[in-house]
Amino acid sequence: MKILLHTCCAPCLIYPLEILRENNFTVVSYFYNPNIHSYAEFEKRRQAVDSFAGNEKIDAVFPPYNPIEFFHAVYQKEIGKERCSICWRLRLNKTALAAKALGFEYFTTTMLVSPYQSQEMLKEIGEDIGRKEQVKFFYEDFRPGFRKSHDQAKAKGIYCQKYCGCIFSEIETCKK
C-alpha cells in the first residue's frame, strides 16, 4: 500500500514514518508548506526533510514554495485558531490532490504527531477532503511518539524549528 505523507518538518517525520512502515505502507514524503515564513526558514526545513528522506531511503516530493497561497487563504483570519484550520485544510487538500494524481490510495500528515495541533480537527479535515477527492485519509494519533521523534532529531543533528511555521505563530512564540 502506498501513502503520501504530508510532511511539515523532519523531526515530525520520524515517528509517523516508523509507524506507517510497521503498518506495511510504502511512504512518500510530500513537503508542501506555503505557510512557512521566512524563505530561509522554509529552506532549512526543506533541506532537513530532504536529508532525512535520503538517509531513510524514502522518496520525497517538494512542490515549489508559494507563500502567496497561504496569505490568500488566511487573509483577514490571521489571528486565532481559524487561521490554523484554514492552513491545515490548504495543505491537506493539496496533499490529497497530489496523492490522487500520483495513484496513491492513502494520504496522511505528520502534523498528527504534534501535541500542539488539534487531532480532532485534523482528522475531520482529512476525512472530509478524502471523501471529496476519493483518496482515503489514514488517521492515527502519532502524539505518543512526539518526544521520541524530537529527541532522535536532536541526537542526529537534524534541524528543529522553534515555531509552527507561519509568521503569525513565530510572533506568538516570540511574545511568550
Task: Describe the protein in words.
Strand 4 (106-109), helix 5 and strand 5 (136-137) form a beta-alpha-beta unit. The N and C termini lie far apart (43 Å). Helices cover 55% and strands 11% of the residues. It has 176 residues and is an alpha/beta fold.
Secondary structure elements and pairings:
Blueprint: E1 2-6, H1 10-22, E2 26-30, H2 39-56, E3 59-61, H3 67-74, H4 81-102, E4 106-109, H5 119-133, E5 136-137, H6 146-156, H7 167-175
Parallel strand pairs: 1-2, 1-4, 2-3, 4-5
Helix pairs in contact: 1-6, 3-4, 4-5
In short:
The protein is built from 7 helices and 5 strands; from the N terminus they run βαβαβααβαβαα. By secondary structure, it is of the alpha/beta class.
Keywords for this structure?
single chain; 176 residues; alpha/beta; five-stranded parallel sheet; globular
